[in-house]
Design a protein that fits this description.
By secondary structure, the chain is mainly beta. It has a domain of about 110 residues: Lipocalin (Beta Barrel), CATH 2.40.128. The chain is about 5% helix and about 45% strand. It is built from 1 helix and 32 strands. A 4-stranded antiparallel beta sheet has the order 1-32-31-30, with no helix packed on it. The protein has a 4-stranded antiparallel beta sheet with strand order 2-3-4-5, with no helix packed on it. A 4-stranded antiparallel beta sheet has the order 6-7-8-9, with no helix packed on it. A hairpin with a 2-residue loop joins strand 22 and strand 23. The N terminus is likely disordered.
């Protein structure tokens, strides 16, 4: 027994980690890989009638659509509280507020007041974007402000319409990446420690849409895939230069995070935008883009899509759908909980309908198989848009002014 423990301790020491280190952490939008996949295992495969037990309920966290991230013993989210847009740190064990920091002005366009950003953290610092363009960095433990920028005033930012800044900034090594949009460049890289500008994409100047960037490597070139009102594009991570671009016009809710898998880029938007799939390749020093398909198999407004294997799943306009990523073939569709957003963990989807119902659904192309239904108390039923999160054996559901924590670990 002692030898076994000693071996674990030695191995952890060699790796520079404590034995109980959780890797990866859920440190930014849709997780460390921005794919919506939770690292959790050993979760309930069937919920009891009425859903899993409620561990705790946090209140007075403000109106808004921010999801949650974690560092050590704290949860980070945003909300409009007392006439301000604020960044909050809550205690993981009970949901009580640890600190609250003003980000900017409250409200927001399109009749949906409140911040939309999910904060990012490296464990020491936390980064948040207000709905009007205020970008702040604070100390993760104390909430003390480290630096502040404004995407409109500092970087001539411009949005495609009036719904306010909705993206969640991307943490990538020593840099923080975001999309102010506009005449100085759509995409911006800042030094995370001080907020100094590294580059702004001078050869891509589309107005910013409402989705969030992803970091990928294509042909050995690390880059950021950005979805705008007019196009999907790849931006070099080192210099901010445009590597490739393909037009895909959308007029309204361009908010879904792109999906990159095995050489294919999948994008979707709401209304007439539909979904598109492109194959991006790199050879002889050049990128090539081939359009594979375009259609209305998935028309996604705020809920995004999650890839599992060779299939893409989304709570689109008509409920939960399963589509083959590389062909666009619709495999199945089910009304489920209606339009909404998804989280994925341990072979299942946590399907959160914007009218306030949560379903546990097997993640399989074989068909819709619901394994539980939950109707959380106190949700507004006017637009529960914040994405659910599964982490540390808990399910987190955010709605206006509340955060609900459910225990979904199998006993």
């Amino acid at each position: 027994m002692f030898c076994g423990l000693a071996g674990v301790l030695l191995l952890c020491a060699l790796k520079g980690q404590a034995p109980n280190h959780r890797d990866p952490e859920w440190n930014q939008w849709r997780g460390p890989n921005r794919d919506g996949h939770s690292p959790d295992t050993g979760l309930l495969k069937q919920w009891p009638e009425g859903g899993p037990p409620l561990a705790w309920k946090a209140t007075k966290i403000g109106a808004g659509f921010s999801s949650v991230t974690f560092a050590k013993d704290h949860i980070f989210t945003m909300g409009d509280v007392d006439e301000s847009s604020v960044l909050l740190a809550l205690n993981v064990k009970d949901g009580k507020i640890h600190w609250s920091v003003k980000v900017g002005e409250p409200g927001g366009g399109g009749g949906y007041p409140g911040p939309r950003c999910t904060p990012a953290t490296d464990g020491k610092l936390v980064f948040a974007l207000g709905q009007h363009g205020e970008l702040v960095c604070v100390d993760a433990e104390s909430g003390q402000e480290r630096w502040r920028k404004h995407l409109k005033r500092s970087f001539d930012g411009k949005l495609m319409s009036n719904w306010g800044y909705c993206e969640s900034p991307l943490l990538d090594g020593d840099h923080l990446i975001c999309t102010p949009g506009g005449s100085k460049g759509t995409v911006l890289a800042l030094k995370k420690e001080r907020g100094d500008s590294v580059w702004q994409s001078e050869d891509l100047k589309d107005a910013a849409a409402y989705g969030s960037l992803i970091a990928v490597e294509i042909g050995g070139v690390r880059q950021y895939i950005v979805l705008t009102e007019k196009a999907v594009a790849g931006i070099d991570s080192t210099r901010g230069t445009l590597l490739w671009r393909v037009d895909r016009q959308s007029r309204a809710a361009v908010a879904a995070t792109p999906i990159w898998y095995d050489g294919f880029v999948f994008t979707s938007a709401s209304y007439e935008g539909g979904c598109q799939c492109f194959k991006v390749a790199f050879a002889d020093g050049e990128f090539s883009i081939e359009k594979i398909y375009s259609g209305r198999q998935m028309t996604i407004s705020h809920g995004g899509a999650i890839r599992v294997g060779n299939h893409v799943y989304s709570l689109a306009h008509r409920g939960l759908k399963c589509v083959e990523l590389k062909t666009g073939k619709e495999v199945w569709g089910a009304r489920s909980v209606g339009q909404g957003s998804l989280a994925y963990a341990d072979g299942h989807f946590y399907a959160w309908g914007q009218q306030g119902k949560m379903a546990l659904v097997e993640a399989t192309p074989s068909g819709y198989n619901e394994r539980g239904l939950l109707k959380p108390p106190g949700v507004t039923k006017r637009g529960a848009f914040a994405h659910p999160t599964v982490f540390g054996g808990k399910l987190y559901i955010r709605d206006q002014n509340i955060l609900l924590c459910y225990d979904v670990k199998a006993k």
